[in-house]
Amino acid sequence: MTATPTPPDRPTADRDPAPLADPLDLLDISWTLSQEERDIQQTVARFLADHARPYLGEWFETGRFPRELVPELGRLGLLGMHLEGYGCAGAGAVAYGLACLELEAADSGLRSFASVQGSLSMYSIHRYGSEEQRTRWLPRLAAGEAVGCFALTEPDHGSDPAAMRTRAVRSGGDWVLNGTKTWITNGSIADVATVWARTEEGVRGFLVERGTPGFTSHDIGHKLSLRASVTSELVLDDVRLPDAARLPEANGLRAPLSCLGEARFGIVFGALGAARDSLRTTLEYADTRTQFDRPISGFQLTQRKFADMALALNSSMLLALHLGRLKEAGRLRPEQVSAGKLNNVRQAIAIARECRTVLGANGVGLEYSPLRHANNLESVLTYEGTEEIHTLVVGQALTGRSAYR
């Protein structure tokens, strides 16, 4: 469903506008949102304030993903919320984006979980699965009763999935899969994995359940980024699957790439949550941190940093909102999603880093969020298409020439 904005009445000519409710919403972008969209955003923010924010530093430091929150996210309707039917909320693209923004304002690991669950695992089943597959998995995934993952990336093939080595070979009425997937979010906790493999007919997708003989996983440790997130390697060693495990509508590489487009859209909004939280944290700090007998928020150089960051945040939010409305109208193109991810993640990581400079030495601790966000955004800059790949996608849209094929 698509929410139609219902803004409040405009101020009359002889009455000054009211002060901004949120100084970070410098351009009053929230005025353009529908009441439903604002309600969804506020509900997610309140939930995270109660159930996540008190523990974010601990989860990052210990490298723990809060699995116990998954059913709660399901009860809120956040898992696959932009999909229709099968227990999914059927929310509009902007509402989904705003939920991603609030999740990433807490931690990128939470938004990554929701993106993989809804926009990769669930979307692949919703769009390319059989009715039996949809009925079996989507209600459980939407409720948070089951966890899904999406296995495309391989140790030697990230940006070039067409070169994947994982293969699926027919054996009677079954398929036998062999290969290795890596950097798989949710991998070791997933009840079902959407695994992409080469066949004689081209790339195909398969649903591989936890516990299937020959299917194993192990977590990737020693991470400096996305620590509050499960990242795994998956190994398929003569994994035998019935043909009923194949996604019947997924024919060719276009299928997994379309799923990635769904996840990238969430990042366009999500990254701005990390930027907004970094800026809000730093504004509060600067107003109480005193040097030379006055708060550092009153110094010209600090105010210039804040002004530049607020402009970058608000202009990026306008871009995200525009892309959301295009998606709701069925007009969003892949190169436009690439432009959104490229710009907004660049701006978000720059804001997080700049905020750390205002915090000074205090900014290197987990008491303040900007450096944690900056570290997480290093992963966001890379996954679902690297900065370089999205640059070339935009370049191809402008010139009509592919620079990487």
What would you say this structure looks like, in words?
- The protein is α+β, with helices and mostly antiparallel strands and 405 residues long.
- The chain folds into 3 domains: 29-143, Butyryl-Coa Dehydrogenase, subunit A, domain 1 (Orthogonal Bundle); 148-245, Butyryl-CoA Dehydrogenase, subunit A, domain 2 (Beta Barrel); 254-399, Butyryl-CoA Dehydrogenase, subunit A, domain 3 (Up-down Bundle), CATH 1.20.140.
- The chain has 11 helices and 9 strands.
- The chain has a 4-stranded antiparallel β-sheet, with helices on one face.
- GO terms for molecular function: fatty-acyl-CoA binding; flavin adenine dinucleotide binding; glutaryl-CoA dehydrogenase activity.
- This is Acyl-CoA dehydrogenase.
Distance between the termini: 38 Å
Largest sheet: 4 strands, antiparallel
Helix content: 40-55%
CATH superfamily of the largest domain: Butyryl-CoA Dehydrogenase, subunit A, domain 3
Number of domains: 3
* Rg over C-alpha atoms, rounded to the nearest angstrom: 22 Å
Which structural class best describes the helix and strand composition?
alpha+beta
What's the shape? globular
Q: Which regions are unreliable across 5 or more consecutive residues at pLDDT < 50?
A: none
Strand content: 5-15%
CATH architecture of the largest domain: Up-down Bundle
| CATH third-level topology of the largest domain | Butyryl-CoA Dehydrogenase, subunit A, domain 3
CATH class of the largest domain, please?
Mainly Alpha
* Beta-strand segment tally: 9
